[in-house]
Write the structure tokens for this entry.
Amino acid sequence: MNRHKRIYLSPPHMTGREQHYISQAFDSNWIAPLGPNVDAFENAIKKYANVEGALAVSSGTAAIHLALRLVGIEPGDHVFCSSFTFVASANPILYEGGIPTFIDSEPETWNMSPEALLEAFKDAAKENKLPKAVVVVHLYGQSAKMDDILAICDYYKVPVIEDAAESLGSLYKNKQSGTLGAYGVYSFNGNKIISTSGGGMLVTNDLKAIDQARFLATQARDKALHYQHSQIGHNYRMSNILAGMGIAQVEVINERVKQKREVFTRYKEAFKGMEGILFKPEAKDTVSNRWLTTMNIDPEYWAISPEELVRALEEENIEARPVWKPLHLQPLFQNNRFYKHSSECVCEKLYRTGICLPSGTSMSEEEQQRVITLLLANLDEKVTKTLVHVKGVI
Ligand SMILES: *Cc1c(COP(=O)(O)O)cnc(C)c1O
């Protein structure tokens, strides 16, 4: 066992109030199904994000799936999706027999390139195969260039699904991330900025759509005394116990954003003035929740690769990760189309040089200093690389 306490990438951070709402559910025996905590959690998110409708579900992935059902996806339909993201952004397209086309990032936000998106649309229009939807991801809490993306999608009359799983609490021109497109999706998985241990939320200003999503997420049971079904349904609702955690977690979302941003600032300060070390910029008119602090290491300056750095940290019981591997590079999607930002593939370069640093809101300053010291020791210069290998041998 390592002598140090493990530092995780982004562990759940409870407030202590969760137990209160969970106890209420137990005291009233409202364990299942649904119940008052679910309603209260949905209302809290509506209020926080300033959106008309919200549906609490079992995961962010389920919420993306429901959004795709709402846009009426059918087998063989095309969907455009950010390439630089977690596989859950695209898997629900496959659940419905849809065909994802992946779109590169642009360098300012690391998110969907409007230029590449426009190229994809032009080709699709020529081939008479416009997509049913566009799934835009706000990676690591940074909002994509929504004005440009929405303008293109509006022109082609294609709805936008915002995968805001990582960006609850982030702002785009003073609007909450996830509330600009037709549908928005949040995740409350264990490592997200707030957590219900597992869960998700679908949001939209279209109340009819939320009713339809509620129907589909509850086994699509028709209005009848007996059990009658005319459509395929899902069992996607959130439990009343977990929703209790969610109520307490929403109460602290702004505090969590502040803490995440402080973690980021401490990392950034520690590497100030070092050439070839890049932190993700915050784009104009946006506020990032800084869900995970990422660091890019320019191989022209530093000999150590992200993978080697992740391993070096692991030896000291610190969890770091490479940034998401772009989906167009995944074996699962080897036959899918991909549109580059320019002659250079932006997301691939970011992937080859980037790592996610421990960014837990409960991480102490001393713990973060331990991470920083180790990073600096490993980054020192080319000689250091040799030392890491020697250490491995001993
Ligand atoms: C976490 C995540 C999801 C999936 O959310 P779950 O609640 O784990 O299903 C989807 N997209 C992105 C970008 C994520 O980071």
